[in-house]
Amino acid sequence: MQTPDYQRLDRAHHLHPFTDFKALGEEGSRIIERGEGVYIIDSEGNRILDGMAGLWCVNLGYGREELVEAAAAQMRQLPYYNNFFKTTHPPAVKLAETLCRLAPGHLNRVFFTGSGSEANDTVLRMVRRYWALKGQPEKQWVIGRENAYHGSTVAGLSLGGMAPMHAQGGPLVPKIAHVRQPWWFGEGRSEGQDPEAFGRDCAAALEAKILELGEENVAAFIAEPVQGAGGAIIPPASYWPAVKAVLAKYDILLVADEVICGFGRLGEWFGSVHYGLEPDLMPIAKGLSSGYLPIGGVLVGDRVADTLIEEGGEFFHGFTYSGHPTCAAVALKNLELMEAEGVVERVRDDLGPYLAQRWQALGAHPLVGEARSLGLIGALELIDPATGERFDESLAVGNLCRDLCFASGLVMRSVGDTMIISPPLVITHAEIDELVDKARAALDATLARLADTLTE
Length: 456
Ligand code: PMP
Description:
Radius of gyration: 22 Å
GO cellular component, one term: cytosol
CATH topology of the largest domain: Aspartate Aminotransferase, domain 2
Bound molecules: 4'-deoxy-4'-aminopyridoxal-5'-phosphate
CATH architecture of the largest domain: 3-Layer(aba) Sandwich
Keywords: Aminotransferase, Pyridoxal phosphate, Transferase
Number of domains: 2
Strand content: 15-25%
Pfam families: Aminotran_3
CATH class of the largest domain: Alpha Beta
Helix content: 40-55%
Oligomer: single chain
Shape: globular
Number of strands: 15
GO molecular function: pyridoxal phosphate binding; transaminase activity
Cofactor: pyridoxal 5'-phosphate
Distance between the termini: 41 Å
C-alpha cells in the first residue's frame, strides 16, 4: 500500500485520539512506518528526529532488540495469564520487586494497570478506600490542579484540570477540586510577581482550598512533579517545599503522578526524588516499558499499603491486563537496560546540563519569551516580538511552529503557544545539537510566515 491508500483507509475508518476528526480527514495523516534510535521514518522515507519520544515514553529509543527478544521469549513461555484468584507469574513478581527497589524506600508495593489513566483510576479508588478503612469515610475530596493531565478515563479527566476535556466530559466524578498551577510564565508573570513569590502563592492557594473544603473532608492532593501535557511546566523552586509544608500541616495524602517524570526524565528515577517529595502513591506508565508495550501501575507507600493489607479485606478492583506477563517482561528488561547503561545518571550529569545550555540559547530568539528545561524535558514560550506579549489565540502560532518543525524533520509539540520537547533519554550530544538547530530553524520559519500574514 502507498501513502494515499493508507490515508484513504485511515480517513474512512479510524477515529484518532485527541483529534478533530473532520479536520484530519481533510488534511490526511502522516504515516509513520519505522523507528531507529531517536528517529522515526514516514511512508515517504522522511527521517524525523522524535523530540517527544513518541508520547513522552520511548525513553530507550526505537529498535532495541533486547526488548523485542524479551517479548518474544515471554510470549513463547506464557503470553498471558492473570494475577486474580491467588495466581501470579515470574515477570510480574520480578518487575514488582525491581520497581520497589528503584523507588524511594517507603514505597514497597505496586498495583499493576494497563495505562496511566487506569493507574489514576486506581489512585482514586485507593485513597478513598484508605480513608474509609481508617474510619474517616468523609475524607473523599481529592485536590488536583488546573491544566494538569492525569488521563482520559472519567476518573483521569476529572482529576486532571484540562478545561476543554471537562467541557465535554458530562458530569465529572464528584468531590474533586482544582487549584491554580505553578506556571509562572503563563500566570505569575502577567500578575507582575517574581517566580518564587508566585510559587509560594500557589501553595497558599492549596492551603486555602483545604480550609474551604475542611481538612476532615480532604483525602489527597495529586500533582505531576513537572506538568507535562500542560506545557512542560517546571515549578519555581519555592513551590514544592511550600506545598510539602502545607500537606505536612494537614492529614492529607500526596499523590505524585510520575507517568511522565518517572524513569529518568528529570535525571532521577522519579521526579519525586528530584524534588525531595515523599509521596504516598505514585502512578507510573509510559517510560516503564519505554512504550514498547502498554503497562502502568501505582507504587504504594507503606502507610496506605499496610492499611489496605491489614484491614482491607478484598479490594474489588483490577484489570484483565494488570501485570500482563509479556508487558511485565518487557518493562523488566527495559529497567535492566536502563540500570546497566547508567541512563538515569547520564541524563542527570551529562545530557540534561548539555540540553539546558543549548536550549537556553534559544531564549535569545525574538519569538521566545522564555526557554526552560530540566533533565530531558523542555519548553519555549512564544511571544510577539513587537509587544513581548502573547499572540492572539486565533493566530494559532504554536500550531504553525509545530507544523513547520515537522516539515523540517523534528517532532516538537505545541500546547497553545508553548513549544515542548521530551526526547528519548538515549539521545547523543550531536542529536541534541540537531534538535536545537531544527527548533531554531522552525522558529525562524514561523517568524517569516507571521511577517507575511501580518503584512497581508
Ligand atoms: N498522567 C500523566 C502525567 C500523563 O502525562 C498521562 C498521559 N499523557 C497519563 C497520566 C495518562 O496515561 P495514559 O495515556 O497511558 O492513560
